[in-house]
Automatic annotation (TrEMBL):
Coiled coil: none annotated. The gene is uppP. It is an enzyme of class 3 (hydrolase). GO terms for molecular function: undecaprenyl-diphosphatase activity. This is Undecaprenyl-diphosphatase. It is found in: Cell membrane. Its EC number is 3.6.1.27. Bacitracin is thought to be involved in the inhibition of peptidoglycan synthesis by sequestering undecaprenyl diphosphate, thereby reducing the pool of lipid carrier available. The lineage of its organism: Bacteria, Bacillati, Bacillota, Bacilli, Bacillales. InterPro entries: UppP.
């Protein structure tokens, strides 16, 4: 029974933190690697890593559900959906699949080029601490630039996701490359980058979540295919509980975040990241 409770907790942590700009990696290090230790429950680190890939797929499925109609519209199919689509105000253009592809290209190139280096040298507590602090500083900068723009009566270039330009998509994609550093947070980097590039917070968040679907699904699918032999009948209940809880709590987290981001901005998340870095550092030092 305890193993299923662990799976439930880890699924909750994954779901709540994967798309919020707080770093799911940092939370997993504290909750799993330092406290619950799923690797010991499952018998090996390899099976535990496969579990984390599976629950990440649960989180991705939540994005697909929330942005169901928008994702179909990228390939020219218009169907009903639950997400709120902000009306276009500057043109009759719509977000296209090409915007998403352009946004993905930098991270795909950097990811394939430096995958071995990242896996070998950057997945350590020390580097995650750096990522947490650096990501927080970037988010504070984005909020500060927004306040300065308002003082100067400057308007956002993209009030809705449908006004994102190809140039903005590429630049946001470059910001996403920073998130290859563990602890930086993909959503934190891309939302901050989007705001710095002139997008409103909700538009930056929408583009971030939509762009996350193909890159995260692709990376998770490839990783899972390499580890299919780890999916034995003994671990299926553990994996199933984690997947379902990750899906449900990611869905809640995304809906909640999208409803709040335009009002609370990024500063509260930046402060939380700094506190998390301090906690992680203290726990790590005490365990040495």
């Amino acid at each position: 029974m305890w193993d299923l409770i662990v799976a439930l907790i880890l699924g909750i942590v994954e779901g709540l933190t994967e798309f919020a700009p707080v770093s799911s990696t940092g939370h997993m290090i504290i909750v799993d690697d330092m406290l619950l230790k799923s690797a010991e429950l499952l018998g090996s680190p390899e099976v535990a890593n496969t579990f984390k890939v599976v629950i990440q797929l649960g989180s991705i499925m939540a994005v697909v559900i929330v942005f169901w109609s928008r994702l179909w519209s990228l390939v020219g199919i218009n169907i009903g959906g639950s997400e709120k689509i902000v009306p276009v105000t500057k043109s009759k253009s719509r977000l296209k699949l090409t915007h998403v592809i352009i946004g993905l290209l930098p991270a795909v190139v950097f990811g394939f080029t430096f995958e071995s280096f990242i896996d070998k040298y950057l997945f350590r507590v020390e580097t995650v601490l750096i990522g947490l602090i650096a990501g927080a500083l970037l988010m504070i900068l984005a909020d500060w630039k927004t306040k300065q723009a308002k003082k100067q009566n400057k308007h956002f270039e993209a009030a809705s996701i449908d006004e994102v330009t190809y140039k903005q998509a590429l630049l946001i994609g470059l910001f996403q490359c920073i998130a290859l550093w563990p602890g930086f947070s993909r959503s934190g980097a891309t939302i901050s980058g989007g705001v710095l590039m002139g997008l409103k917070y909700r538009a930056a968040a929408d583009f971030t979540f939509i762009m996350a679907v193909p890159i995260m699904f692709g990376a998770s699918a490839v990783s899972l295919l390499k580890k299919m032999d780890m999916l034995t009948t003994d671990v299926i209940p553990f994996f199933a509980v984690g997947f379902i809880s990750a899906f449900f709590f990611a869905w809640l987290s995304i809906r909640f975040f999208l409803a709040l981001i335009s009002r609370i901005k990024l500063l509260p998340f930046a402060i939380y990241r700094i506190v998390l870095a301090v906690v992680l550092g203290i726990v790590y030092i005490n365990m040495m």
